Amino acid sequence: MKVCFETFGCRLNRAEALQQEANYIAAGWELTEKHDDADLVIVRGCSVTEKAQTDCERLIAHIRRKYPSLRVKVEGCLIDSTNRKRKEEKIDPVQEFEKTAVPTRTARGFLKVQDGCSRRCAYCIIPSFRGASTSIAFNDVIDNAKKLRDQGGYEEIVMTGCNLSLYASDGKTLPDLIDALSSLGSFRLRLGSIEPGGKAQEVIRAMAANENVCRSLHLSIQSGSNAILSAMRRPYLLRDVDALADEVVSLMPNCSLGCDIITGFPGETEIDFLATSSLLKRHPFTNAHIFPFSPRPGTSAAMMMPQLPRAIKSQRAKELAKISARHRATAIESFIGKVVEVIVEDEKPPSGWTSEYFWCTLKTAARGMFPRKKLCKMKVIGSTKGKLEAVHADT
Ligand code: SF4
Question: Cα(121) to centroid of ligand 1, in Å?
Answer without folding.
Answer: 6
